[in-house]
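ok so for the tutorial part 2 we go from a plain amino acid sequence to predicted structure tokens. step 1 is just haveing the sequence, like this:
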Amino acid sequence: MKTEKISLDMIRLRCKRSYAEIEEFFNKHTEYDNVFIEFYIQSKAAAFGYNYKIMTNDGSFWMGCGHNSEKRGLNTNLYIEYNPNKLQNNAFLQKVLSVFFRYPKTEIISCDIAKDFSLPMINFIGDMKRKREVKIFNTSKGKTIYIGKGDGRAKLYDKAKEQGLKGVDWTRFEVSLNIGRELYRMDTFGYKGDLPSVFYAEQSLALDAEEKAVIYALSDNVINLNEFSRRKRDKYKEILSNFKEISFSSKEIYQVLNDYVKGVV
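step 2 — the prediction. this is what the tokens look like for a chain of 265 residues:
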């Protein structure tokens, strides 16, 4: 099986800055071409009071400060969330990072790490270990499997279909992680959580319609192997043996995050 790449698909950073610094910076943003900033205020207790949606030719990203649960003063926690795969080389994002976040005590709050495979979604099935809640959605953009919730939750989906690409095999397995660590301490970081797995077959199996239905029902936890006769249990166990397990190792997570830090600090 070919793994195209392992990459950082989303990052959320936090730093401490003054309201005056933030306001002054955004008052000067007009010096950048093709950058549009939408400023909006939210009043809900769980929301950020001041929000900036920054739209560029390379894509958009979000910044927020003055969380409504935060005691107001001269300084505030400033957050940014963006996709390094799309925006890391964007000039305006680089300016934002250099002014506010390119400091050792900036924290990585959370991230999404993705594995991309040049295989069709039909070659993948969900978490057969039954350790986590699994939700399956079928839409016009293909099948998406959500595994678990909170820290370590995962998503398996047809990236080619999501992007509207025809004749392309591209499946993405993505995990969301809570980090909560300063940039200068990332070299000693080790993720301790138990992450979900999915299973894949390197080649499409020659299964009839009934066999396919049973395998997907087993992977989606709709039925259990114990519901079948011994002969059929053995048959489906043999089919399932063609599927190999994939997840994210702590070493892979460490490498992706530290490669990112080297490019930021």
